[in-house]
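user: can you give me the structure for this one chain? tokens are fine.
assistant: on it. calling the predictor now.
[tool input]
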Amino acid sequence: MEKWIFENWLSPGDVVMLTAAVRDLHRAYPGRFLTDVRTSCPALWRHNPHLTPLKPKGRGVRSMLCHYPLIHQSNTAPYHFIHGFIEYFNAKLGLNIRPTEFKGDIHLGRREKSNPGPVEEMLGNGALSLAERFRLKERSGLRGEEHGPYWIISAGGKYDFTVKWWHRRRWQEVVDHFHGRLLFVQVGDKGHYHPPLKGVLDLRGKTSLR
């Protein structure tokens, strides 16, 4: 059985795609690999059934820094980001992995599934005062006791790739279009660019990767 530690120290989105590659590696070759990871976002791997604790200097353990050179064909080849690490595994390990699901592989624990999320906690457990709840409903145009469906938006980005940003005016147009029908929850890392929007529940800097 092959033992591998896969490494990647990039941003959360990259690590999410690596979770998909590890999932599909095991689905394509069940029982052939023992895998562990060293990444910038350990929280994204919590409860992952495909991981086995491995030590870098353990017997038969090898490490691989994972890349996705397929990105250099992003304007010419019909691939999605989810193929990036998968094709890297195929090339480096001589495999024939194919994506089995068009998403990452994030697993929730029992408590995470049963406990309310941050939005429910703020709106349902008294984290917001009555005055704050009233102002939120007034800004969002929602009525009644329940907040109803909500969309999470990350209206900004990192300073190293500003080309990925969408102008805050356009984000505000989307929020305004659904005024009174949907609650928008704005999230974002406090160290990145996330200008405040009007008529949203502001959770910038208040959430984790989980």
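assistant: here you go. The chain has two domains: 2-93, 116-202. The helical segments are 12-28, 83-93, 110-114, 118-124, 130-140, 168-177.
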